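hey m, so remember when u said the tokens were messed up on ur end? i reran from scratch. heres the input so u can diff it against urs
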Amino acid sequence: MNDLQATIGLETHVQLNTKTKIWCGCPVDPHADPNTCCCPVCLGYPGSLPVLNAEAVRKTVQAGLLLNCEIGLHSKHDRKSYFYPDMPKNYQITQYDQPLCIGGELEVEVNGKSKKVRLNRIHLEEDVGKSTHLRGSSGIDYNRAGTPLMEIVTEPDLHSEDEAMAYLSALKQLLQYGGVSDCNLELGNIRCDVNISVAPKGSDTLGVKAEIKNMNSFRNVHRAIAYEVFRQKKAIAEGTPLVQETRGWDDGQGTTFSMRSKEDAHDYRYFPDPDLCSIVLNEEQVEEIKASLPERPREKRARYIQELGLPAADADVILAEQDVAEFFEAVLPHVQGEAKATANWVMTELMRVLTEKECRPADLPLTPEALAGLIKLVQGKTLNAPKAKEVFAELVEQGGDPKAIVEKRGLAQVSDDSAIDAFVQQVIEANPGPVADVQSGKMQAIQFLMGQVMKLSRGKANPKMVQERLKEMLAPE
């Protein structure tokens, strides 16, 4: 089976983070009680007419520009006919032959190598209702129906589950930083259909395609591709015919299963929606949106490395979560020249707390200004590392001013030469055994003596000064 190669195309459905739906004024609220954010338009009542949400168009154009697409100055919406309970009109309003965004690409990194994934298009459509299947019945919540939805379609440029994962992760990050979508997987903001075929390596013709529908977990996309590629390669090796079909994913079994034969475009009977006008943009509008685009994650990463001097690994950790990166950048203006120290605090202490509390930086009493103040106290040698962590813990729980906390609790570091010497001399006199070990060349014993000095000073002594004075006082004459 080594002479066979998989070809993968992804159709990623991304909910736009607008306040209202695409065709009506109903709110987009994933936490609302079922069927409370609906109106005659959402429910497909006869005579109800859609009105396009201009913000949905703007955000789709933003996404297209972030992904280097050509923006279609003239596009339209079409009706895609199908019969399923989650779409009460019995057709979906989508875009067929004149989408808003054409072409485009996304550069991703796979196993340390850069790869460009071409896009076919981005079109703007409406989401459907959410089906819940119980043992003896099914329910439909139409709150989601009519939520603005982008469908981002790749060219068949991917050839492994790792490449697909890298693409989806990069796409999610770009759209979040671009302010286009929250891309919350748990809320279904981003879902994926996966098209997979297998053919001999070097072949100009793709194999028989299977489409796996509605994947809402990147982990499951990875697993499903790995299984489906294996299934198709095994079938070809055994001479078993493959058929074009739609398949589902069984998470428990870790396998795909046949659902139905795959539809072609003519089965949906596309035609222009007669209730909607065409979307007409001009170059000035597109340029205005382009000028408002934020810094892309790859650009931000390059700036962190080149201008701030962060290691690439640090930049990747901080940029992995947008709100963490925003907090990091909010600290920087208050600690000029201390980007690395700030990164260390963010990557270790802050991210540890966020994981433990399962929260975001905005949910904590800790402010960027307070963390900056704490970093300056450490860099200025007013606080040593252990005491700084104590202050950080209080800032996380109660907030406040780090300098005031230090003064109130008497945590300031002792860096006075005479005071350090007094502590060190007292410890040397009280511990002749470890002192003899150090003087005989067993330098690990110096850590014990340092611990005794820190204990004697109640953790306030400057550790670096303590170590230096111990070495000087115990050096062979």
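this time it looks ok to me. DSSP finds 15 helices and 17 strands in the chain. if urs says something different then somethings off w ur setup not the seq
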